[in-house]
Write a structure and sequence with these properties.
Length: 114
């Protein structure tokens, strides 16, 4: 099955836009919570919890955005769809599911078992 580059590029751009928006929203939420922290001591527990959760979401969104950016860069330089670890072509079905996947399935498994 050939890799549907155009469709995957579209999916990546959509993902990039929504992650960027999400990060912007999180950024302003985190700031607001930071301001409320000292003025509402009764909400402290909730606020600390919300902050931790928002930060975790932020870190994960930033991580995914980095993968999306890298994938778009590879589309531009012609190496998209090649595994970063072994250089083999990544299965098209895998790319359909995760267009920003940087490595093939077997290398992904190796990374996770490291
Ligand atoms: Zn590989």
């Amino acid at each position: 099955m050939p890799i549907p580059y155009d469709r995957l590029k579209q999916a990546l751009l959509t993902e990039q836009a929504s992650l960027t928006r999400e990060l912007n929203e999180l950024q302003s939420t985190i700031k607001e919570e930071g301001v409320g922290y000292s003025t509402h001591p009764a909400d402290e527990g909730t606020t600390a919890f919300d902050q931790a959760r928002d930060l975790a979401v932020k870190v994960s969104a930033e991580h995914t955005l980095k993968l999306v950016d890298d994938a778009l860069a590879r589309l531009d330089n012609g190496t998209f769809g090649l595994c970063l670890d072994c250089g083999q072509e990544i299965d098209a079905a895998r790319l359909e599911a995760i267009p920003y996947a940087p490595v093939c399935l077997s290398c992904q498994a190796k990374r996770e078992h490291r």
